[in-house]
Amino acid sequence: LESQTLPYVQQASLWESCRRSGQGGEWSCESLMGYAWGRAAAATYLVGFLLLVICFALAIIAFAIDTLRFNFIRGIGGLLFVAAVFSIMGLVIYPVKFSSEMELTGINMFSWAYGFGWTTAIMEICLGFFFCCLPNYEDQILGNVKPTYFYSSP
User: What processes in GO biological process is this protein linked to (predicted)?
Assistant: First the structure.
């Protein structure tokens, strides 16, 4: 969260909220980890990120080893959906509770980092569908399908 107009009097992250009294004043910061919703938002978003990293590692292993290629691709897709759920929970808890429990002064907006979090969640959902549908085309990907020619001789 950042102040949108001058004087910039408030900024916040997933971990703390900072404010200052005027343009030249010093920032005073308060940790959001003192609030239950702050810990919940951080924990759910970090669990989603950890699951995303695990899915990335599993995907590299699955595509590097021929015998494992399509054995657990759908499992990775399912895990990506779970990661998306955790990320979305964190992305919803934070702004709702922050705006209702913290005193906001001036005009504020959520910065690019919040949009980046939503982009990550959307990509997790799309990749979940991709990994769940990929085994349906296993033969085409591996080249095991006999080509069909639509040519007829006169």
Answer: apoptotic process; cell-cell adhesion
Which among 44, 62, 57 is positioned nearest to 121, based on CA atoms?
44
Rounded to two decimals, the pTM is: 0.83
Q: What is the CA radius of gyration of the chain?
A: 23
From the list 114, 113, 115, 111, the residue with the least C-alpha distance to 10 is 111
Q: Which residues contact 43 (CB under 8 A, 6 or more apart)?
A: 90
Residues 124 and 80: beta-carbon distance below 8 Å: yes
Q: Distance (Å, rounded) from C-alpha 138 to C-alpha 154?
A: 35
Task: Sheet with 2-3: list strands edge to edge.
Answer: 28-31, 16-19, 10-12, 2-3, 108-109
Q: Where are the domains of the chain?
A: 35-135
Distance of alpha carbon 102 from the chain centroid: 24
Which H or E element spans position 10?
A: strand 10-12
User: Count of alpha carbons within 13 Å of 114, Cβ hemisphere only?
Assistant: 16
**CA-based nearest residue to 12, from 110, 120, 117:** 110
